[in-house]
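New to this. Comment on this protein:
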Amino acid sequence: MIKIGEYNELEIVREADFGYYLDGGTGKSSDDILLPKGNALGKELKKGDVINAFIYRDSKDRKIATLKEPKITVGEVGYLKIVGISKVGAFANFGLERDVLVPLKEQKYNLQKDKEYLLYMYVDKTGRLAATTDIDRYLEIMDDVNVGDEVSGIVYGYQTNNSLMIAIDGKYKGVILKNEYFTNIKPGDTVHCRVKKLYEDGMVGLTPRKKKLEERNELQEKILKFLKENDGIMSYNDKSTPEEIKKVFNSSKNYFKMALGGLMKEGLIEQDELGTRLK
């Protein structure tokens, strides 16, 4: 049985000027699968050779073979670029001539053209290749990890409380709680994090925030720069709302107050009910 979207070991049963025909396994020549010469990668092939070819469908819905290597096969998760948007869904480039469709019903968030996302590829009810953003069930539990480790991951969605779902190394389950990030991070974005907590269910708790001292120092530099660019004064102080601080400085209020306190101890700034100014 031919497996669409996977590699199949098939015998070349005849040749043509434009390619080779592979045994379709039904005994009918009309079911044989074409391997176009352009997909043979310049290899010298002949009748009787058994080759490992990837099988998919062409624009006319015919089975087609290639020796080119796709970015993912059926049952795999890959980081694919969206190359087109239509009324029926989005199209992702998985490395071959024909792109794979991500149907609208399989999009848990809006996909944007020219951006990459983690997608899982499957065969739909009609026997065509398709992909979905719903990849959580296909990710693994990360065993070899410790609190404090630095890792990279890709955002693949949101939890109901707006915590970010992260695929560490593109394949392990991780999460950034909503109170751990203060920038506009979206699905498809790559993030660099520290492991903050290991949960009993195997989920890895992450934070993109630096260690407390590093983050405080960086925030202090940001505050001083902001003041210098605004004539040495700003309306923000330790009474400002968390929303204002997050919008302007991409920080929590606690870290902002800590940074202000450090700058005041150094004698670099002073603040009152109207705001903060350079000394």
Summary: DSSP finds three helices and 18 strands in the chain.
